[in-house]
Write a structure and sequence with these properties.
The protein contains 13 helices and five strands. By secondary structure, it is an alpha/beta fold. The chain has a five-stranded parallel sheet, with helices on both faces. The structure holds nicotinate mononucleotide and 5,6-dimethylbenzimidazole. It catalyses: 5,6-dimethylbenzimidazole + nicotinate beta-D-ribonucleotide = alpha-ribazole 5'-phosphate + nicotinate + H(+).
C-alpha cells in the first residue's frame, strides 16, 4: 500500500506558512489540504473530479422486522437517485459533484445473517472486486455511501463481531425503528454473532458472514482508492463498517480516509473513535446514501480555494510575525 507522501506535505506546509493568516489559524482546513497532498502524492493537491459513489444492496435479515421501511425501498430509491430526487442528488448538485450508483443484485438479498453467512466466499470476493471499479474514470477524491434497507443491522453485527462488547452497544435506530424494532435488531445482532463466532477472527470472514454486498464493495473501493492515490471521504455508520474491516486487517489501511460526518446513529461516535477519525461535520444526519460525505466536499473545496487562492504576506505586503 502506498504511504503518505512526506515531500508533498512539506510543500503544503511551506506555502501555508506564507499565506496571509496567523500560523495554523485555518485549523482543520489546513490539515485537509495536507491530507490531500499526502494521499494524492501531489505538492499542490486538487479536487477537480470528485465522485460520490453509492453502493446499494438488499439484506435477508430485513425480513426480521429490523427496519422501519420495507426492502422494496432500496430499489425504489435507485429510481429516485436516477431521477435526481434524493437528498444526495441535491447535495452533489450544490457542489457540482459527480454521482455514480452501483447496484448489487437487489433482487437477490444476501442470506439472513442470523441463519447463515451473508455470502459465500466467491460472492464476497467478487463483490469486493466489483467495488474496486468505483475509482474508474480519473477521479481525484472518492466519497463513499450506500443504500440498503436493513443495513444498519448488518453494520452493527460487523462492529459487534470486530469489537466485541454487547449487541446493544452497536445498535441504533437506523431508519427509525420503535422500541420493539430495536429489540429485534439487538436480538438479530446477538444471534448472528453467536452463530458465526468461530469464523470471526479473520476480518474478511466477519465481512462475509455478517456484512452485506454494499459493505464488501465499499471495502474494495477504499482499498483500490489507496492503491491509486485517491483520498476517500467516508459517509456514516454503515460506510464506516467497511473501513473498520480494512483497519482490522491492517492498521494503516484507512489512513487515506476522512470521516465526512458523525451520524445521529448513536454508536457511530464510538465507531469513529475506534477508527481514530474526527468527523468534519456533526449535523444530526442519519440518512446514509453518501449525504454526509458529499456535504464534506464543500469544506474540502473551501480548504483548497484558500490554499490556492490566498495571497502570501509578500504578495499582499502584509507584515509578518514579529
Ligand atoms: O450511515 C448512517 O449513518 C445511516 C444511519 C441510519 C440510516 N441509514 C440508511 O438507512 C438505511 C438502513 O436503515 P435500516 O433501518 O433499514 O437498517 C440504509 O439505506 C442507510 O443508508 C444510514
Ligand atoms: C426513503 C429512504 C431513503 C434513504 N436513503 C438512504 N437510506 C434511506 C432509507 C429510506 C427509507
Amino acid at each position: 500500500m502506498p504511504a503518505a507522501s512526506e515531500a508533498a506535505v512539506t510543500a503544503v506546509r511551506e506555502r501555508q506558512a506564507r499565506l496571509t493568516k496567523p500560523e495554523g489559524s485555518l485549523g482543520r482546513l489546513e490539515e485537509i489540504v495536507a491530507f490531500l497532498a499526502a494521499w494524492q502524492d501531489k505538492p499542490q493537491p486538487q479536487m477537480e473530479r470528485p465522485l460520490v459513489a453509492i453502493f446499494a444492496a438488499n439484506h435477508g435479515v430485513a425480513a426480521r422486522g429490523v427496519s422501519a421501511y420495507p426492502p422494496s425501498v432500496t430499489r425504489a430509491m435507485m429510481e429516485n437517485f436516477g431521477n435526481g430526487g434524493a437528498a444526495v442528488n441535491q447535495i452533489c448538485a450544490s457542489f457540482g459533484t459527480g454521482l455514480k450508483i452501483f447496484e448489487l443484485a437487489l433482487d437477490l438479498p444476501t442470506e439472513d445473517i442470523t441463519q447463515k453467512p451473508a455470502m459465500d466466499e466467491a460472492a464476497a470476493a467478487a463483490t469486493f472486486a466489483f467495488g474496486m471499479e468505483a475509482i474508474a474514470g480519473g477521479i481525484d477524491l472518492l466519497c463513499l455511501g450506500e443504500m440498503g434497507i436493513g443495513n444498519t443491522t448488518v453494520a452493527a453485527a460487523v462492529y459487534h463481531g470486530l469489537y466485541g462488547g454487547k449487541p446493544e452497544d452497536w445498535v441504533g435506530q437506523g431508519t427509525g425503528v420503535d422500541a420493539e424494532g430495536l429489540r429485534r435488531k439487538i436480538d438479530a445482532v446477538g444471534t448472528a454473532v453467536a452463530l458465526h463466532k468461530d469464523n470471526l477472527t479473520d476480518p474478511l470472514q466477519v465481512m462475509r458472514c455478517l456484512g452485506g454486498r454494499e459493505i464488501a464493495a465499499m471495502a474494495g473501493a477504499i482499498l483500490a482508492a489507496r492503491i491509486e492515490h485517491i483520498p476517500v471521504i467516508l459517509d456514516g455508520y454503515v460506510a464506516c463498517a467497511s473501513a473498520a474491516i480494512l483497519q482490522a486487517l491492517h492498521p494503516g489501511a484507512i489512513d487515506h480516509c476522512l470521516a465526512g460526518h458523525v451520524s445521529a446513529e448513536k454508536p457511530h461516535a464510538n465507531v469513529l473513535a475506534r477508527l481514530g477519525k474526527a468527523p468534519l461535520l456533526d449535523l444530526g444526519l442519519r440518512l446514509g446514501e453518501g449525504s454526509g460525505a458529499a456535504l464534506a466536499i464543500g469544506i474540502v473545496k473551501a480548504a483548497l480555494a484558500c490554499h490556492d487562492g490566498m495571497a502570501t504576506f509578500d504578495e499582499a505586503k502584509v507584515p509578518g510575525q514579529v
